[in-house]
Amino acid sequence: QVSKKLVNSVAGCADDALAGLVACNPGIQLLKGHRVALRADLEGIQGRVALLSGGGSGHEPAHAGYIGKGMLTGVVAGAVFTSPAVGSILAAIRAVTQAGAAGTLLIVKNYTGDRLNFGLALERARAEGADVQMVIVGDDSAFTTRKKAGRRGLCGTVLIHKVAGALAEAGASLNKIVKTVSAATKAMGTLGLSLSPCSVPGSKPTFQLAHDEMELGLGIHGEAGVRRMKVVSADKAVETMLTHMTDPSNASHLPLSPGSSVVLVVNNLGGLSYLELGIVAGAAVRSLESRGIHVARALVGSFMTALEMAGVSLTLLLVDEELLRLIDAKTTAVAWPNLAAAPATSQRGEVPAPKEELKTVQPATSTGPGGQRAQLVLEHVCSTLLAMEDKLNELDRAAGDGDCGHTHARAARAIQEWVRARPPPAAPAQLLSALADLLLEEMGGSSGVLYGLFLTAAAQPLHNRSDLPAWADAMDAGIKAMQRYGGAAAGDRTMLDSLCAAREVLQALRTPGANLLQVLATAVQSAEAAAEATRHMEAGAGRASYISSAQLLQPDPGAVAAAAVLRAVLEGLQN
């Protein structure tokens, strides 16, 4: 099946992507008639070496994102995963030569098509009298035996752009730049790991991976890797990658010894979430530190991608002070990160959390529910919510992210641990405040905040009071706080529908001689009816408000949960 792409046309996607980059970045301009991007200030290279690179599209932000002062002078782009045309490469060389460049260096990834096309353009430019040289970058550390074609060019190429760009900006000669970057290429290794294939626009995925598989050592065009393995944790995956990259029996390994300094690049291959990327980055730093390696700099982001491939590559460049100075040199290239000139470390100090002011402990009162009764009620509420976990998740899938049951179960487990560790406070205000703190800390999601708001506000009328009218006041105060900050009201298809229905009945607690259990039983029935009625409501607040009511068809999970909590409180008091 052909993958979905957000493009205008398959044939025009490479041109459109380059045009979009140029439209948004005044420092880049197109060369008319060619898929070539150049520095807008070409006059700035007069007397300096020009740096040209490129290759197939689909690796964005490479390569055009690295055009700028201190990096590339220009880039020649091919169609997706296709080497650029010889004529366009030659046109780019002519453009920089005519701008007064003191020689041109072509930085080319080690792929047959790129070598051939850039090589032919170089020969033709030399025949015209241009001073042109070429460096082939092969940083792939995947293959354990030597390949005739050599190591593939991967994300390490971006570091070569940076080193060469800093030298060129400082006025270094073409020979000096070639010598330095050629040495750097030999002191560099990259290895990729993917959870999914990619697909060229208009085509099917480049390969297939089972849901429980990952591919080690694949290329940036969807080429197969050296090993297919079961999905493992990020820590284990990173350890596997670094072990493979540095294994002396691997013909393409990078020799690392304790005390070495490296620049680390954690590169998103296109479709990995930045959450996962951060986890991988932390694992890489820790793993390198455990080997005695100094991570002098760490770059984390999307630097050389393979369309939408969900994967990551790790690049290591052995550096000395001179190379590090070139990495740190300023550049205007839009895709180069705002990199701090400081090492990466897993041992950063933490800011101490501010200490909370000690709260005045309210003594237990004999008029409120005792600690033992409170514990029984809470345990019944918790067992009720745990039993409903799957049901609440199912209700939530229609309108949310399907985690309402998980969220309430998380709260229930936290309360269970809390009451087993210490008897809950007997005083109502203290009990509700402690529960609010616990849910705000442990429950998570908007539900945790809403329950925390409710309990915090409800505790206020119960200070030094525990008569029945005080509990009616508490219900009023809790609901008002939820409405004030949550923005919902009765009729909006939220947990407030259940709570507001119960509140109306609980006003009877203000009547002298009211029977708590009788009033509460009626309130629970009203709350349950209100929760069921949300099935036919148009959502006015919360995530469900973005979904057509015709698609909901189920009662609101928050309203169902709130009614269930009230039912559990009643049953706990009746026991």
From TrEMBL:
Every DhaK domain range: 9-336
PANTHER family xrefs: TRIOKINASE/FMN CYCLASE, TRIOKINASE_FMN CYCLASE
Protein name per UniProt: Triokinase/FMN cyclase
Domain of life: Eukaryota
Matching Pfam families: Dak1, Dak2
Summary of subunit composition and partner proteins: Homodimer. Interacts with IFIH1 (via the CARD domains), the interaction is inhibited by viral infection.
Its biological purpose: Catalyzes both the phosphorylation of dihydroxyacetone and of glyceraldehyde, and the splitting of ribonucleoside diphosphate-X compounds among which FAD is the best substrate. Represses IFIH1-mediated cellular antiviral response.
Residues annotated for substrate binding in this entry: G56, S57, G58, H59, K109, D114
